[in-house]
Amino acid sequence: MTYWAVNAVFLAIVAVVGVLALVTAAVRGRAARASSSSAATTRRRREVVLGAGIATGVLLVMTAVFDNVMIGIGLVGYDAARISGVFVGIAPLEDFAYAVAALVLLPSVWVLLGGPKTPRAPEAPRAPAASTPTKQTAKEARS
């Protein structure tokens, strides 16, 4: 069995969870769009896409760096007969499937578990409580 075959099993499960999250987000989004302006929705969508893009870039770069270090020092090794032969540095391309799975699975689970909660309206500032008498020490009483 190749590393891609092993990855395919996990990536298929991740894909199913991702599709469920997209459907869930779409259903919730319809309700949210009904109560907000299209400009706010567009701005929010742009922020989400930008954040996802930045997170993807950071995670893939970190995966490339650390996978190459781990393979380079001999912490991890791969059977040459079971890899595709495509490398990023000395790390086989198959190694990046786990990062891609994390990029899809973690936000999907977050959405399925409830996603972002709507922010509450800020509470009005409270007036300071009236000072209550406290016990005085003998030294304070003499002052």
Number of strand elements? 2
Strand order of the largest sheet: 1-2
Q: Uncertain segments of ≥5 residues (pLDDT<50)?
A: none
Structural class: mainly alpha
One letter per element, helices H and strands E, the order comes to HHEEHH
Helical coverage, percent range: 55-70%
Shape: flat
If you compute it from the alpha carbons, what radius of gyration comes out, rounded to the nearest whole angstrom?
A: 26 Å
Average pLDDT metric: 85
Distance between the termini: 85 Å
- Specify the number of helices: 4
Whole-number total of structural domains: 1
Please outline the major beta sheet: 2 strands, antiparallel
Residues in β-strands, percent:
under 5%
Topology:
Layout: H1 3-34, H2 38-72, E1 87-88, E2 91-92, H3 97-112, H4 138-142
Antiparallel strand pairs: 1-2
Task: Provide a short characterization of the protein structure.
By secondary structure, this protein is mainly alpha-helical.
Description:
The protein contains four helices and two strands; from the N terminus they run H-H-E-E-H-H. With 143 residues, the protein is mostly helical. The protein has one domain (3-110). Strands 1-2 form a two-stranded antiparallel sheet. Strand 1 (87-88) and strand 2 form a beta hairpin. It is flat.
Keywords summarizing the entry:
143 residues, mainly alpha, 62% helix
